[in-house]
């Protein structure tokens, strides 16, 4: 019974995520919508990172700010989102080392 519930919850979670992926490939959006959709990962990254930027080290908030600025700069120059995250982490690591 528990296995059936887990499988059912997995299907209910996966179906709404897969359907848009297949629909988006079939639709041609105007260029302004494509630009907007391309900005979503960076906006999500900013929303996830910003609350922790100033609380990386309680006694030195500028370290987190430096990591956030590096993330902003890398995103501005169009780096892959993984490189943006790694660059911010590396900056904070090197400044706290």
Architecture blueprint of SSEs:
Layout: H1 2-26, H2 31-53, H3 61-76, H4 81-96
InterPro entries: Brnchd-chn_aa_trnsp_AzlD (IPR008407)
Keywords: Membrane, Transmembrane, Transmembrane helix
Transmembrane segments: 6-24, 36-56, 62-95
Report what the structure shows.
The protein is an all-alpha fold and 97 residues long. The protein has one domain (2-96). It is built from four helices and no strands. The longest helix has 25 residues, at 2-26. The mean pLDDT is 88. Keywords: Membrane, Transmembrane, Transmembrane helix. This is AzlD domain-containing protein. It holds the Pfam family AzlD.
- Overall, the morphology is flat
Give me the Rg, rounded.
Answer: 19 Å
How much helical structure, as a percent, in the residues? over 70%
Mean pLDDT: 88
* Total count of strands: 0
- Which residues sit in consecutive blocks of at least 5 with pLDDT less than 50? none
Counting structural domains, the number is 1
Helix-strand makeup class: mainly alpha
**Termini distance?**
51 Å
Residues in β-strands, percent:
under 5%
**What order do the helices and strands follow?**
HHHH
Q: With helices defined by DSSP (H or I, 4 residues minimum), what is the helix count?
A: 4
For the largest beta-sheet, the strand count, sense and barrel status come to: none
